[in-house]
Amino acid sequence: MDPSGAPLPTLRCPRIAHNIRVDGDLHKAPWRSLAPVWLQPADGRGAAIDVERALRQLKEDARPPVDEIGFQPTALRVCCDRERLYVAFHCVDRDVWGSLRGRNQPIYTEEVVEAFLAPDGDVRRYVELEASPQGAWFEARVESPERRRATMRVDLDWSCAGWERAVRVRGAAKRSPGSGPPDCWWSAEWAIPFAALPGAMPPRPGARWRANFFRIDAAGGGQFSAWSPTFAVPADFHVPDRFGILEFA
Fold first, then answer.
1. What share of the chain is helix, strand, coil (3-state, %, to 5)?
2. What is the pLDDT of residue 1?
3. Is 0.85 surpassed by the pTM of this model?
4. In whole angstroms, how far apart are CA 81 and each of 119, 133, 192, 223?
């Protein structure tokens, strides 16, 4: 049971007529016409996001900000077609970095965006998908019968067959934090086949999944963002009872 008592958010997933070419460009259709939702501090303490400033900073031709950014905003958008769920993260970031490459490295210790998806609505079983600005990725299936990290089991042999992903950086992704000039943003664009997800069927209008979406920026003491805050201190994303509702149009 969710100990926070906070209501769970609902994210509506619109349906599109044509598939998306996954290349990391979030300034193309349909993303440019979809209003984002903004990730919040995962501990639930809230942050005042200047949406107009954040959207300016996420423009295709944005320049690095002249002043410091406290909490770095992340715009989240989702949509689907008959065969895939599309997820787009657009991250304001003055210092884009990452040292790890390839599959299932511990990219959650650096910079990463993440999606936890429970298509059948049972939060004791879900998949974890992650990507870094360097193009590294993480994919796993999680069994959490007691819905807590201490007893969960992570299957790293599972793969999300056909998962397409791409990243773009406005700036230059560096190997370590603070090792280059300021950046503007980085983006991650995913196409996730419904057929690849355990228990998933192409969702009909009104179908509801349980899900959560996250971002980690480990530099400078770390920032942990979530669509549905987990309220865990220290930060912990594996709090299935805090998964929100992903509702398909």
1. 10, 35, 55
2. 52
3. yes
4. 16, 26, 10, 32
